[in-house]
């Protein structure tokens, strides 16, 4: 006859989450609230984790940047970080970091999806919408589509 396992403590559950991947403070807080009992002091627990270096919004932000910048633009990454409860200062720094290589990343993303530059206004709009859906701003979209058009003229 199977024995019932004792309920996991909030601390144990938090450690298990952090063992799998980085979490933001706000994100982990939301996850733990589902399982917390009245006696649990989640903010105190998470503050202790921050003091020990086990929980870091800066480290979480860096991980998101590394994972997302090859697929998305700065606007989409900033939106995701905002949703995860990251502070505006960290988001601003992240956007600056992403923008350093945003043109190259946008060009790679465009090349994976499209093989030839737009030949008509409709194609230009279609390609622009695709890049916009990936979180690139209009200035970056114009820059990428102009670059591929001029490169095609030179070939």
Name the features.
3 domains, mainly alpha, 9 helices, 155 residues, Arc Repressor Mutant, subunit A, single chain
Mean pLDDT: 91
Number of domains: 3
Note the run of SSEs as H and E. Answer: HHHHHHHHH
List the uncertain runs.
none
Strand content bin: under 5%
Characterization of this structure:
- The chain has 155 residues and is mainly α.
- The protein has three domains: 8-55, Orthogonal Bundle (Arc Repressor Mutant, subunit A); 57-100; 102-154.
- It is built from nine helices and no strands.
- It has helices spanning 10-20, 25-33, 42-52, 57-68, 74-83, 88-100, 102-113, 121-133, 138-154.
- Helix 8 (121-133) packs across helix 9.
- The longest helix is centred in the last third of the chain and has 17 residues, at 138-154.
- The N and C termini lie far apart (75 Å).
Fold topology:
Layout: H1 10-20, H2 25-33, H3 42-52, H4 57-68, H5 74-83, H6 88-100, H7 102-113, H8 121-133, H9 138-154
Short description:
With 155 residues, the chain is mainly alpha-helical. The chain has helices spanning 10-20, 25-33, 42-52, 57-68, 74-83, 88-100, 102-113, 121-133, 138-154.
């Amino acid at each position: 006859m199977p024995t019932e396992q004792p309920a996991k403590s909030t601390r144990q559950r938090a450690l298990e989450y952090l063992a799998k991947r980085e979490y933001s403070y706000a994100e982990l807080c939301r996850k733990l609230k589902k399982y917390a009992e009245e006696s649990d002091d989640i903010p105190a627990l998470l503050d202790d984790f921050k003091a020990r270096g086990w929980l870091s919004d800066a480290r979480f932000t860096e991980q998101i940047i590394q994972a997302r910048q090859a697929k998305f633009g700065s606007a989409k990454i900033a939106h995701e970080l905002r949703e995860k409860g990251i502070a505006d200062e960290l988001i601003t720094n992240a956007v600056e970091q992403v923008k350093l290589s945003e043109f190259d990343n946008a060009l790679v993303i465009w090349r994976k999806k499209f093989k030839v530059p737009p030949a008509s206004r409709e194609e230009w709009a279609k390609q622009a919408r695709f890049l916009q859906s990936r979180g690139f701003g209009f200035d970056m979209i114009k820059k990428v589509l102009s670059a591929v058009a001029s490169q095609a003229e030179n070939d």
